[in-house]
Automatic annotation (TrEMBL):
It comes from the Bacteria. Gene3D superfamilies: AhpD-like. This is 4-carboxymuconolactone decarboxylase. GO terms for molecular function: peroxiredoxin activity. Pfam families: CMD. Residues 35-118 form the Carboxymuconolactone decarboxylase-like domain. InterPro entries: 4CMD/NDH-1_regulator, AhpD-like, CMD-like, Decarb_PcaC.
């Protein structure tokens, strides 16, 4: 069963983040972080992201809001790049960041908007 959850998680992770990103991340796994990497693949990707309770678009929007609210900027940008795979539109992202402004604060939303503009522009050039 654990292999199934891992395999489901890895497939979802590849679908959302892209083959190249996951391949690069997987190459960097060492004995030190192998257990952690397996846990996030199973828990985050194999259970949470793979559940049929929400669409990938909805999960993407929720994830962006949480990452922006918490100031996890590297992960925020990674998930912005992933919106080309999840179906979250630029309009969706702008709306999410309005919610971040109201519920988590204008400084967080302002910085997220700055990063989003640059990341989405680079996404459209790729």
């Amino acid at each position: 069963m654990a292999e199934d959850i891992y395999d489901v998680g890895m497939a979802t992770r590849r679908k959302v983040l892209g083959e190249a990103h996951v391949d690069r991340a997987s190459q960097g796994i060492t004995e030190f972080d192998a257990t952690f990497q397996r846990m996030i693949t199973e828990a985050a990707w194999g259970r949470t992201w793979s559940s049929d309770a929400l669409t990938l678009r909805e999960r993407s929007m929720i994830t962006l809001a949480l990452l922006a609210a918490l100031g996890h900027w590297e992960e925020f940008q990674m998930h912005l790049r992933a919106t080309r795979n999840t179906g979250a539109s630029e309009k969706d992202i702008a709306e999410v960041l309005m919610h971040v402004a109201v519920y988590a604060g204008v400084p967080a939303a302002n910085h997220a908007i700055k990063l989003a503009k640059a990341t989405l522009a680079a996404n459209s050039e790729a």
